[in-house]
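Lecture notes, part 5. Sequence design as translation. It can be helpful to think of inverse folding as translation between two languages: the language of shapes and the language of residues. The source text, in C-alpha cells, appears below.
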C-alpha cells in the first residue's frame, strides 16, 4: 500500500529522521492499519461464505418447490384434460350444426305425400284439356307488344 509522503511542518526536520520517535509512531500506526484491513478482509470472506451457503440453500428450496408445483400441475392437467377436450369438442360440434328453424316458421317438411291423396293428384297431374293454340308460323302474323305496355286481362 502506497501512502503519500508525510507533510513536514516547518522546524520539525529532526522529528522525521529515521529512528526518531515520530517515525516509530508512524510505523506503529501503519501496522495497526494493515492489521485492521486484514481483519476486515477475513470478515468479508466469512460473510461471502455465509451468503453463498444461504443463497445455495434458498435456491435448492425454490427448485424443490418448483418441481413439486410442476408435478401437481401436470397431475391436474392429466385428470382434467379429457373433460376440457370433451367440452371444446361439444362446442365445436354445436357451431357446425345448422341452426334450428324458428318455432313460428310453420310446419316443416312433413311425411312424404301419399300418391293416392286427391289433392296430390291434382297438383302433380298435368292439366288436361284443350292444348293452347300454336303460334302462327308466319312471323308477320305474330302480334308484338310495345315495350312498357301491359296486357289487359278481361
Amino acid at each position: 500500500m502506497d501512502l503519500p509522503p508525510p507533510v513536514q511542518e516547518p522546524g520539525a526536520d529532526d522529528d522525521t529522521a529515521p529512528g526518531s520517535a515520530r517515525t516509530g509512531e508512524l510505523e506503529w500506526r501503519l501496522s495497526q492499519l494493515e492489521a485492521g484491513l486484514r481483519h476486515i478482509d477475513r470478515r468479508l470472506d466469512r460473510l461471502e461464505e455465509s451468503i453463498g451457503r444461504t443463497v445455495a440453500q434458498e435456491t435448492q428450496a425454490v427448485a424443490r418447490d418448483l418441481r413439486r408445483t410442476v408435478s401437481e400441475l401436470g397431475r391436474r392437467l392429466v385428470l382434467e384434460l379429457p373433460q376440457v377436450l370433451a367440452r371444446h369438442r361439444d362446442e365445436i360440434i354445436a357451431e357446425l350444426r345448422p341452426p334450428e328453424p324458428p318455432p313460428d316458421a310453420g310446419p316443416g317438411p312433413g311425411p312424404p305425400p301419399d300418391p293416392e291423396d286427391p289433392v296430390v293428384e291434382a297438383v302433380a297431374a298435368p292439366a288436361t284439356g284443350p292444348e293452347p293454340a300454336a303460334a302462327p308460323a308466319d312471323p308477320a302474323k305474330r302480334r308484338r307488344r310495345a315495350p312498357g305496355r301491359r296486357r289487359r286481362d278481361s
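The translated text above is only one of many valid answers, since several sequences can fold into similar shapes. The CA atoms of residues 116 and 122 lie 10 Å apart.
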